[in-house]
Amino acid sequence: xxxxxxxxxxxxxxxxxxxxxxxxxIREGSSVFLAIYSVILLVGLLRLSQGQAAWEAWRAALTxxxxxxxxxxxxxxxxxxxxxxxxxxxxxxxxxxxxxxxxPEVLIAAGGWLATIGASVLIYVxxxxx
Amino acid sequence: MADTRTIxxxxxxxxxxxxxxxxxQTFQVPFxxxxxxxxxLQYIKDHLDGxxxxxxxxxxxxxxxxxxxxxGVPELSCHKFLRDYYPGKVRIEPLSHFPxxxxxxxxxxxxxxxxxxxxxxxxIPETPKPLAAGTYVQTPQQFHKYYxxxxxxxxxxxxxxCPQYGLKPDFIGPAALALMHRYNADSRDRxxxxxxxxxxxxxGVWGCTLVGYCSEVCPKHVDPAHAINQNKVNSTMDYxxxxxxxxxxxxx
Lengths: 130, 252
Hints:
The complex is a heterodimer of chains A (130) and B (252). Chain A has 130 residues and is mainly alpha-helical.
């Protein structure tokens, strides 16, 4: 039989074709800020091990306007990342059932959101006042 | 019909014998409140251009034949009404990520001939028993473990919703992996190991990046994204050799 000729459509710019994909890319992209922030914290740990002068220099670097701008941006994007992380958590969770009925997805996500807010407040209180 | 209005429908046309690439053709289609998108296409074929080619069968969202991209969203075209797009226009394309055979008809062989058989979509019992030995008994709880995943009608909307399938056509994909979970989660089945190679592969559950759109567009609420991502845990436990310890049966 002769090979049937088909047309394969290109995938260029696929993520701009649907708002759902745009949100997905923002969700994935926001993790970049999380990674950069983690590196900054790890560098701090390294500087701490190098003695007081190194530690103070790292702390001073954090107070530069660029650093403060980055940290605000990171707070914003990481908050969004945390929101989306829990939003998809019902898909990664095992098949949760109560009395034979599946637990509503929004309850699973809400549990994560509440835990994140609770942990953030707790850490803030500890760091700020203790 | 007193309440007939006219809507503009743009359809992707491709004739493999003549065209090097597809193009859009516009039709003015009269419709009333109960005209589905599929009926709009049928109007075009019956009254405006008999050469327009598309698949359909049951007209009531159960055969899974009439999937199309409607304004960029994978839909069963019998399941959407033209009134909901009016006064805008409707742009109809073949399901994304599949090769186009002609007009709105896609080549489904990749999923139907290769991916679905690859997941061994049938009950593999521990020891086969003869018919005379009677039926396999199952409780309602055991039944509900897989019921949802058995509702797939092979409409392929989830593949059209999955950019990973578009970017990496070797990815086994949402429907086939959900069907694999349907059997792994069945209390009568002991086929986890036989399906593990496909599941554990880069092209198996790990090809999924949890875009999640497959579950969003599924007309039967099969939730392939959940089926796949639960099995990333199973696959990890399998990798460390503890799956049998923690989940003796497999997916349930």
